[in-house]
Amino acid sequence: MSDQEYIPKSKFGKWFNDRLPLLSLASHLTDYPTPKNLNYWWTFGGILTFCLITQIVTGLTLAMHYIAHADMAFESVEHIMRDVNYGWLIRYIHANGASMFFLAVYIHIFRSLFYGSYKSPREIIWILGIIIYLLMMAAAFMGYVLPWGQMSFWGATVITNLFSAIPLVGEGIVEWLWGGYSVDNPTLTRFFTLHYLIPFLILGLVVLHIWALHVPGNNNPVGIDIKKPSKDTVPFHPYIVIKDGFALLMFMIVFAFFVFYTPNILGHADNYIEANPLVTPAHIVPEWYLLPFYAILRSVPDKLLGVIAMLSAILILAALPWLDTSKIRSAVFRPLYKQFYWILVADVLILGYVGAMPAEGLYLLIARVATAYYFLHFLVVLPVLGFKEKTLPVPLSITEPVLGGSPNLVMAKSKESMKQ
Amino acid sequence: MKFFFLKLLSLTVLFISLSFNSNSAEKVEYLKTDWSFKGLFGKFDRGALQRGYQVYTEVCSSCHSMKYVSYRNLAEKGGPEFTEEQAKAIAASFEVTDGPNDDGEMFTRPGKLSDKFVMPYENVKAAQAANGGAYPPDMSVLVKARGGGVNYIYSLLQGYEDPPTGIDLDEGVYYNKYMYGNKIKMANQLSDGLVEYADGTKATVEQMSKDVTTFLMWTAEPHLESRHQMGFKAIVYLIILTILVYFSMKRIWSRIETEV
């Protein structure tokens, strides 16, 4: 992992480092050569690390006061909100933190899509990222069940029932997941256990994700391979650390605004009604970050095919490095891909919107068209584009935009926006 | 960079508007009033909270429980802020079932500060039996449990009307223009002069609705005031820190020719 030999100055340091090379690791992390043209879209990796740590720390604190029992969960959450010192603060950070986590992860994923960060030699980083994203969705879904409100209960019922679409064994699997014949106390306790476990799995995968990143090094807005270390790179510390820190603070201001001034806006009012198996809410909707997939699920008339479509929509991302046949990474030099990229962004936002609406009439039609386009983008547009597209000339290095005098668009752009 | 954060902001705004849309499928214009607790420095109006408590106790509490609120909360900072003596007297005016005692029997005693608000019915079934099958919801977090929040509750209390021609109502069902589906099992409870406010405020239906809704906002968010105060401090602190870090960043990056 470390490319250059690091020799500690002190005698004890050397003794220790020979036995456990923690100092070498620290030196690798601080000196890690990073492309100097990374823009602010690259700061979300650090922001996501912050989000994960925040969720784990607040989550541990909440777990000290929460009671995972169907008769007491709702009450224990109210106890946290009212009687635990700063319990309201910790819970609101945790609840809004989930939304902020997903906001950041979506930006992180779409940054990767724009600049082709998933392409060779970074396929493993990308696939690890997709697994992390899947685990995040599982953790978020189970976390939403824990307060045992109406939306918790009915959301859990709807989502677990999806497994009943599996032929032959479906019903059995659902009962196995529930630990009974409906969503009840056994379901709650196992969801709590898994909700506690998954963040640590994510943490482990994040370590692998970063490790895999440090082998080829960061991609960059120009999307070219760079020599490291060279005029094109800066050491991670202090240059990237301070820039990530600045972006993180901006992010925290938005975060704080949600926590302190509109803490419930991203949740659903029905979740402040205690779970009642006898009363079904008028509209059962998942949290906003799952809506695009919910729209895909509902756009298919057949239950099993709907579940398959929804899962494929996520898993297709794992195949992306091989579906995208273009050798050029950055969309900056791919005029056609750039347009399709923005169409995809709009498509996913539309899916999210119709996911929140009742699945009928015009909404259903829009959902079907948007679903079809989503798959079309990955299965047809990307493979074909690699062969058909006339890409712009790519510079040889970040510092010297040579080759046909092609200007370094991203650099120029970021300079402009700084001056404003 | 400005451009970047503009994009980020517009994305955020989009998501918020999405979640707004998802919550307000049915479109009714709720009545509006200026709530003292909205905004960056929003605080509860102490008078409104104390009057609202009076409306709750004298009117609502005969059917609606409030099981997560304790009498001690009435004297706490950021709430109605009754004096401790007043709160003790309020608690003592209720009969609380306690026990079992050493003889194994339940007994009643006057309420203490540590007691939760006494419930009007023994259990949900008893509440339903007494109210024609409809359960009067617990009011502790009611304003957070309804899509329209305080404006919805405020409107509902004033939304009773004679049903339009063509709508037949069953026995024990009432017409309310803000209720989902317009049919509600709670009769109109408020009428002008129903309670007599100690501070001399005129007890109009509008006034009582506003007072009791303010009180319900407090029971749902008892720490709202400290949340607003802490939020302002936290955000100002973050902004100052962000500015300092921004200039440090400029300084550090000036060592190399690239701009950040």
Give a quick rundown of the structure.
The complex is a heterodimer of chains A (420) and B (260). Chain A is an all-alpha fold.
Mean pLDDT of chain B: 90
Helix and strand pattern of chain A = HHEHHHHHHHEHHHHHHH
Strand content of chain A: under 5%
- CA-to-CA gap between the ends of chain A? 40 Å
Q: Low-confidence spans of chain B: pLDDT under 50, at least 5 residues?
A: 20-25
Secondary-structure element order of chain B, as H and E? Answer: HHHEEHHEEHH
Features:
heterodimer, A: 420 residues, mainly alpha, two-stranded antiparallel ribbon, 63% helix, globular, disordered C terminus, B: 260 residues, two-stranded antiparallel sheet, 41% helix
Task: Write up what this structure looks like.
The complex is a heterodimer of chains A (420) and B (260). Chain A is built from 16 helices and two strands. Chain A has helices at 11-19, 22-31, 44-63, 73-82, 87-115, 123-145, 150-161, 170-178, 185-214, 236-261, 291-299, 303-315, 320-323, 335-355, 361-388, 409-419; strands spanning 33-35, 233-235. A two-stranded antiparallel ribbon of chain A has the order 1-2. With 260 residues, chain B is mainly alpha-helical. In chain B, a hairpin with an 8-residue loop joins strand 1 (95-98) and strand 2. The N and C termini of chain B lie close together (9 Å). Residues 20-25 of chain B have low confidence and may be disordered. The interface between A and B is large, with 58 and 55 residues.
List the SSEs and their pairings.
The complex is a heterodimer of chains A (420) and B (260).
Chain A: H1 11-19, H2 22-31, E1 33-35, H3 44-63, H4 73-82, H5 87-115, H6 123-145, H7 150-161, H8 170-178, H9 185-214, E2 233-235, H10 236-261, H11 291-299, H12 303-315, H13 320-323, H14 335-355, H15 361-388, H16 409-419
Antiparallel strand pairs in A: 1-2
Helix pairs in contact in A: 3-5, 3-9, 3-10, 4-5, 5-10, 6-7, 6-9, 11-12, 11-14, 11-15, 14-15
Chain B: H1 2-23, H2 46-58, H3 84-92, E1 95-98, E2 107-110, H4 124-130, H5 149-157, E3 174-175, E4 183-184, H6 205-220, H7 224-253
Antiparallel strand pairs in B: 1-2, 3-4
Helix pairs in contact in B: 2-6, 5-6
